[in-house]
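Q&A log
Question type: sequence-to-structure
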Amino acid sequence: MFKNLKHRILFKGNLKKHMRIMLALMLTGYLGVSMLFFCIVLQHRLIPYYRSVNEDALETAKISCEKVFENLSSLSKIIMFSDEITAYLTDNNSSHYAHTKEAIRYMYLCTNYYDKIDSVYVFKTNGEYVNINTSFGHVRVDRDKVKNTDWIKDITSLGGGYRVLTDKNGLFIRKDREFFTFIRAINDLETLRPIGVIAINCPLSLLESAVGDSEDLALFDSNGNVFFGEEFSKQFIGEHLSELVEGNDDGNVHALDKYSTATASIANSDLFLIKKMAISVVSQMQREIIWLLVILLILAVVFMYAMNMYMRIIVIRPLEKLSETMDKVKDGYMHRAGLTTQVDEINILKDSYNNMIIKINDLILELVEQEKVLAQSRLDVLVEQINPHFLYNTLETLGYMSLESDRKEVYEAIVSLGDFYRIFLNSGEEMTTVELELEMIQNYLKLQKLRYDDLFEDYYDINPRVLNIHIPKLILQPLVENSLYHGLRKKDEKGVIRITADFEDNNLALTIYDSGIGMTEEEIEKVIHTDTGGFGLYKTLQRLSYLYKSENLYRIESVKGEFFKITLLLPYDKC
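Response status: OK
Response body:
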């Protein structure tokens, strides 16, 4: 129902309605494209502004995170440069627990002044370690990984610098919350050779509180692990990780969102901060711009109105006049259109219409002539019907039979004559069935045998399914008569007439065969294309061609001196 309603609204109606719809669509498209272009330009002009704001806010968050690391760096220096820690690291006898106790005591003493520290570990270069855990939670070490001292070599290769790792590094484990590890090498103050490593574990919430409560800020590492931030940030980081980590993010607006983004890496770590800010075009539009859009809208409406008037004068009015002329054809007004226009296409349409009118008039005259020919053909049929020669000859034969034959044979001959004329006349009907046509042929040949007893024998091969099909009346009798008079009678021997009715492809095939004198191809061409004055092939084929609107309705086979065979191929769907 909705589809039909849409079809009536958009597609049904006169040219004026379609012009209005077209102009409305053009105006809508113009405004839509203009607004889209305007928004794109404005967005590109806003991006530098939003990016600058993003970078300033991001720099502040970055400094806050690095400030946390600097505080941890200060704490690590206090611990690692103490005599207690140095004594523990330089004591190669692991059985001396005094240095271990002093190191643990000193680490507790130092961490009392720092909040939110989960644990502190001090490792020797051989993998041995001492540690403390605060009341905030327990972080344990992966002992298998600690035994492999390659990680200590990686840390000591940094010299005196520190490194910040996330809990994804696998060295430390805590299941209840995420944390990060501040780690650095401890060097001997005299030899400057590495003697150990210090690791301080802190919850990631320490960094989150440092940057403040910002929903549009996220922290992630180089592997794409997001530690805090909303769903947008997680999705965005997953899609653009390589660009963000490699520093290729240029802050542009991305296809799936309308945001300006900025990214910064935190020094001495594999951590990154990303900040987004929604770009709002409407909020940045000024009053002057709004007035400019209103003026553009007014100019567009004026332009569309002028275009509508131009199209109405140049196109619509000439077409309306041509349409009025065409409508008069329904009332029998078959005159040509006489409008004048400067549009070439309308002139072509007008000329095509005028040529069509001329051809229609010619076709009407041709149809009138064809009706005349058909009427003459029908008249010829009637003339043949009332031609008394056949009746006189038959009555003369019946007279001789009444003197020489018994009464039963005379009676049967009279019945055959009556049946023949009953079907022959058929109340003036033009159509008959195959069954009645064949019955008439049988009666006709039965009467002819009374005159030409030893001249021929007739045979019939009829498909019962064709008997009720309607065909034009008197299309077989003239062909049978030709076979008798122009084929068999001119041959000095007894012949055969065989009549066949069946289906062939999509046609009804009616075949008349006689074993008479036959015809050459030249004689056949002459007979079927020339009216020889008798009721024969020419008029029958002309009549069928007119009734069925086709020329390919027959097939003729003949051998001179042996036989003649004609097959009528009548379209079954038109029978």
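Response note: The mean pLDDT is 77.
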